[in-house]
Amino acid sequence: MPxxxxxxxxxxxxxxxxxxxxxxxxxxxxxxxxxxxxEADANAGKLDAxxxxxxxxxxxxxxxxx
Length: 66
Fold this sequence. Notes:
Elements: H1 4-12, H2 16-43, H3 48-59
């Protein structure tokens, strides 16, 4: 597997149009990884306390519209 430094150097050498393609690909890749992490955290119950706190605030009239 290539090192981060070699990947950085390769990216720096990309022509402008390929850099744009890479950015689009990486954005989708990063969004997918983020979504997977949030889903895994939710399934593991790691967000339950935050959800309970938000619901309690809502039920106590502490929520406000933005």
